[in-house]
Amino acid sequence: MDSPEIRIVIADDHPIFRKGLREIIEADPKLKIIGEAEDGDSALELIRQSKPDVAVLDVEMPGKDGLEVVRAARDRGVDVKVILLTMYDDEQFFNGAMDMGVMGYVLKNSAVADIVNCIKAVAEGKNYISPILSNYLINRSRRDDSPGERSALTKLTDTERRILKMIAEYKTSKEIAAELFISPRTVEHHRENMSEKLEIKGRNALLKFALENLPEI
């Protein structure tokens, strides 16, 4: 008996990239795109209405970005397997995505080679990341197995520690973003992930933690 089609939603704000992605995906007869979105808010509504098997989301989109769509879908009880597409080879972002339950993580520059296999793996309930990022999974496994993880600061990645130190220096998200050559929104995601890992709430609480632990950061 033939396996059913895998129903997919894709979201990316670049029409040309989206068109190319559709052509690659639908070249496989088992994969069917049932909707497209060009921003995060539309993607969330499309996912809610069409209930796809897999959602392929760009990390950087107008309105809600990919991680915000994942968070909003989770908060609303929408059950969908998610693959994130990103331009950035960033271990912190990868760990943040995995912590939120994202099952697929693909670099855009390797999407042509990886996306079909990723969709099929994720649809079966398996995790899939671009092979070039395999060291991230190894580091993640070591981190989770380390006895030192009981220490709060050891829960943070090197990037998070660097940002935390900047927070202790009273730098704004915009200033941190400029120094690290990332977007302010990405800095905000780092803040949220740190707060979750450290089990603290509120920006002032994160600043307080950073000041109290500055010598160890």
Textual characterization of the structure:
This protein has about 220 residues and is α/β, with parallel strands linked by helices. It folds into two domains: about 5-135, 3-Layer(aba) Sandwich (Rossmann fold), CATH 3.40.50.2300; about 145-210, Orthogonal Bundle (Arc Repressor Mutant, subunit A), CATH 1.10.10.10. The chain has ten helices and six strands. Strand 1 (about 5-10), helix 1 and strand 2 (about 30-35) form a beta-alpha-beta unit. Helix 7 (about 160-170) packs across helix 10 and helix 8 (about 175-180) crosses helix 9. The longest helix is centred in the last third of the chain and has 15 residues, at about 185-200.
Indicate the radius of gyration in whole angstroms.
Answer: 18 Å
- Element-by-element helix/strand order: EHEHEHEHEHEHHHHH
pLDDT < 50 runs, ≥5 residues:
none
CATH superfamily of the largest domain: Response regulator
- Termini separation: 57 Å
Name the beta content range.
5-15%
CATH class of the largest domain: Alpha Beta
Helicity range: 40-55%
The domain tally reads 2
CATH architecture of the largest domain: 3-Layer(aba) Sandwich
Structural class: alpha/beta
CATH domain fold name of the largest domain: Rossmann fold
User: Main β-sheet, in a few words?
Assistant: 6 strands, parallel
Averaged pLDDT: 87
Query: What is the number of beta strands?
Result: 6
Give the spatial strand order of the biggest sheet: 2-1-3-4-5-6
Please name the defining characteristics of this protein.
217 residues, Arc Repressor Mutant, subunit A, 2 domains, 6-stranded parallel beta sheet, 10 helices, 51% helix
